[in-house]
Structures are given as structure tokens and as C-alpha cells.
Design brief:
This protein is mostly helical and 119 residues long. It has helices spanning 3-24, 31-35, 48-72, 113-116. The protein has a domain at 15-27 and 48-77. Helix 1 (3-24) packs antiparallel against helix 3 (48-72). The longest helix is centred in the middle third of the chain and has 25 residues, at 48-72. It is elongated and about 110 Å long. The chain crosses the membrane at residues 6-24, 58-76. Involved in protein export. Participates in an early event of protein translocation. Pfam families: SecG. This is Protein-export membrane protein SecG.
Length: 119
């Protein structure tokens, strides 16, 4: 199993967890805490802390996802060659095709049958 495959699996797992955490939250501020009866002034068993946990876990998972994506770039297999420079910039390996030949412009000085009779 390559390093990139490991990073890819981690990225998929973190993305799935991030979707789950976001879906649990309620955009109106109720979310998971309101389903436990913590919508009023009474806070039973620290349900108020649930929204703080979901908010912190969202930011943590989003940051982790970004870091994993950036680090996975290092693990990408570049085709096995050690040379990663562009061949377009190397003047020795120019493989440009020659441009197709354009016909020369003609100035239409050919004689027509009417001109050749001398009339």
C-alpha cells in the first residue's frame, strides 16, 4: 500500500466525518442540543457544551482535511522518474514539429487568352 493510498483513505474518512458533524448541527442554533431538551434556559447535563463541541470538531476536521490534502501532494507518484523538470523548457529536447508550408502569394501575372492575342 503506497503512501498516497494511505493519505487518500484518511482524506475520505475525515471528509465523511466532517459531513456527519455538519449534518448534526442545526443552522438555527438548536442542533443536537435542542433535541435533548436544552432549548430553554435550563441546561440539563451540560447540553450547552454540545454546540461548542460540534463547532470545535468542525473546525478541527476542516483544518485536518486541508492539511492532509496539502501533505498528500508530496506522496503522489510522479511516474518513477527522478527528473521532474519540464521538457518544454529544455532547449536540447525540443521536439517541435515544423510548421506546415504556406503557398507563396501569387501576383496573378499570367496571361489570359484575351491578352495573348494582342487585342
Amino acid at each position: 500500500m503506497s503512501t498516497f493510498t494511505i493519505f487518500l483513505v484518511l482524506i475520505v474518512v475525515v471528509a465523511f466525518l466532517l459531513v456527519v458533524v455538519i449534518m448534526v448541527q442545526n443552522p438555527k442554533g438548536g442542533g443536537l442540543s435542542s433535541s435533548f431538551g436544552g432549548g430553554g434556559t435550563q441546561q440539563l447535563g451540560g447540553v450547552k457544551k454540545t454546540t461548542d463541541f460540534l463547532d470545535k470538531s468542525t473546525w478541527t476536521l476542516a483544518t485536518l482535511l486541508l492539511v492532509l490534502i496539502l501533505i498528500s501532494n508530496v506522496a503522489i507518484d510522479r511516474g518513477g522518474s527522478a527528473n521532474t523538470e519540464s521538457k518544454a523548457l529544455d532547449p536540447d529536447t525540443q521536439t517541435a514539429q515544423p510548421l506546415p508550408a504556406v503557398p507563396a502569394a501569387t501576383d496573378n501575372t499570367t496571361a489570359t487568352p484575351a491578352d495573348s492575342t494582342g487585342n
